[in-house]
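Protein modeling request. Please complete all fields; requests missing the sequence field cannot be processed.
Requester role: graduate student
Desired output: 3D structure, token encoding
Chains: 1
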Amino acid sequence: MKKSLTQRIGLGAFGVVVALLFVFPTYWMITSSLKTPGQVLSPDYDLIPSAATLDNFVSALTKPGFTTYLANSLIVTLGAVLCSLVAGVLAAVPLSRMRFRGRKGFLLLVLIAQLAPFEALLIPMYLLMRDAGLLNQLPSLLLVYFAATLPFTCWMLYGFVNGIPYDLEEAAMIDGCSRAGAFRRVTLPLLAPGLVTTSVFSFITAWNEFLFAFVFMRDQNKQTLPVWLSSFRTAFSVDWGGIMAASVIYAVPALVFFILVQRKLVSNLTAGAVKG
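Delivered output (276 residues):
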């Protein structure tokens, strides 16, 4: 009993230390955003600001182009997530439920596409977009993010569909449902937690992407929030307080999206447990 209690205390202390290590950078970012430039650059850095100010947030929110960049990020990110979920479901269900020649090879190609470094595709995709006349257009960036998130979405949803017994669909079809009706009434509701989980990772991947948005969108009115963050750094100075405040603002939409889908995920899991 004493040994077990000691182990639990040790694991709990270790967990607290790891949690603090992960939380501290976020705390540093928030506290730095509330300081004046002199306080941020001071060698005697205070972990708790003595005099907080919102000037950095005001300057970040009033910086030219913020609303445009925010709208562009939301459009391409949410559009890419929605398209990848639809295409992922349409690919994952046949791969899981049907047996056809080349199925395992296709799954292997999906995995290889996920493992490939996306930056290696920058030049070929740039040349392709240039020849197609799609540079400086939001649909082209949405298409890039869709291609970036689709392999992961297919692979994840394939695993979730495999975890749903096919007997449930067969029982629905015996009761008079068509194959499409059985999928819509039985499989799709049970697949909701997988859709939510996959959407979170896809959203984070598309929301944080910087390189393709910077290279493809040379027009400032078509750029996204990660590119906007880089505007706080010039050749002569760096507005560290502004960068920290902008980073806090930048993290808010992703946090809100995660909170919304987390509630949906928990409710779906609870409902499935009760029904089971």
